[in-house]
Each structure stands twice: as C-alpha cells, then as structure tokens.
Amino acid sequence: QVVLVSGHLDSWDVGQGAMDDGGGAFISWEALSLIKDLGLRPKRTLRLVLWTGEEQGGVGAKQYYQLHKENISNFDIVMESDEGTFMPSGLGFAGSAEARDMVKEIMTLLQPINVTDVYDTADGTDISYWMRDGVPGASLHSDINKYFWFHHSQGDTMTVQDPNQMNLCAAVWTVVSYVIADMEEMLPR
C-alpha cells in the first residue's frame, strides 16, 4: 500500500522553475527525509514521485499511471504540491465524506502552526488520473497572492522562495503523509 507525495521538476521555457514547481518537489523530498531522520517507519510505503513533462501535456504522469494503474487499489492517497510553497493554509482534498472527516481530524495536528483548513477540491495535473478513478487526493493550499507575479516568468528563481514558509509547507506534507501512511486502515473510498 502506497501514500504518494509529489511535485514536478519541469518548468516553463523561462525562469528556473524554483516556485513552479521546484518548491513542490522540494517539500515532497523533505517530507520523506524528515520522516526518515526521525526514525519513523509507517505501516505503508511513502513514495516520492518527481513528475516530469507536466508542462508538455502531463506525459510523465500519464506514463506513471499507465505503469501502476493495475495496483490502483493499493494507492491510499495521492498528494501533489503545484501552486507554490508560500505561507500554507491547508489542504485541498478530493475523496469520500468519511475520508474527508479523517483528513480534517489529521489537520487538527497542525493547529500549532495554524494550518488546519480542508478545501473542497484537490488540484494537480499529475494526480488527476488517480483521483478520477477514485483514489483520494490532496493538494497543498498556500497564499497564492504572489504566485502569478512569478508564474512562467524570468522571475521564477530561488529568490522567490522563503525558507520559513517552505519549512511550514514541508511540515504540512510530512504530518499528513506520515499519519495517513501509519493509520490502521486505508482512507475509505
């Protein structure tokens, strides 16, 4: 059984792609790194996917889906960060009402950093195939007021990233992925 965390490595034809979507790739990597550094071993596999080809029609995600869809019942949740890694506010979630209630409970663990909201939909080009077929999905919600200042521009460089905000995004990703991976049962479909 798999809990998938992800971001994509490709960017547009200008800039460095640090925010879109290097930040999402980084916090996904960091989540697994933190869990390992803490010596935690969840009941399910945590899998990091660094998608490619998202800007070219999602070809990387489509190929991954084609290669793994026969095991779709083993995917507990698919998570993608693709809207910047600014100050986080919560998660977008797609799944059953029962699963949503469980995710809302998990998000209460993030009250100390004031990131507890659960929004009605999850966004993510790379995880859309899975969600379409009923796998619960989650996307990071952060303050996107400045997102389009840099999106697909020469300004999308490492200077856009705020290390403190990225740490908070990584904390959200870490807590949610670990708790779901360590629950007794998979999220209900």
From TrEMBL:
Keyword annotations: Carboxypeptidase, Endoplasmic reticulum, Glycoprotein, Golgi apparatus, Hydrolase, Lysosome, Metal-binding, Metalloprotease, Protease, Secreted, Signal, Zinc, Zymogen
InterPro entries membership: CPQ, Peptidase_M28
Gene Ontology terms: biological process: peptide catabolic process; proteolysis; thyroid hormone generation
Cellular component per GO, a single term: lysosome
Signal peptide coordinates: none
A Gene Ontology molecular function term of the record: metallodipeptidase activity
Compartment(s) where it occurs, according to its Swiss-Prot or TrEMBL record: Endoplasmic reticulum; Golgi apparatus; Lysosome; Secreted
Superkingdom, taxonomy of origin: Eukaryota
Domain Peptidase M28, residue spans: 1-173
Pfam families hit by this protein: Peptidase_M28
Entries under PANTHER family matching the protein: CARBOXYPEPTIDASE Q, PROTEASE FAMILY M28 PLASMA GLUTAMATE CARBOXYPEPTIDASE-RELATED
Quaternary structure and interacting proteins, as annotated: Homodimer. The monomeric form is inactive while the homodimer is active.
Family indicated by similarity: Belongs to the peptidase M28 family.
Protein name: Carboxypeptidase Q
Species annotation: Regulus satrapa (Golden-crowned kinglet)
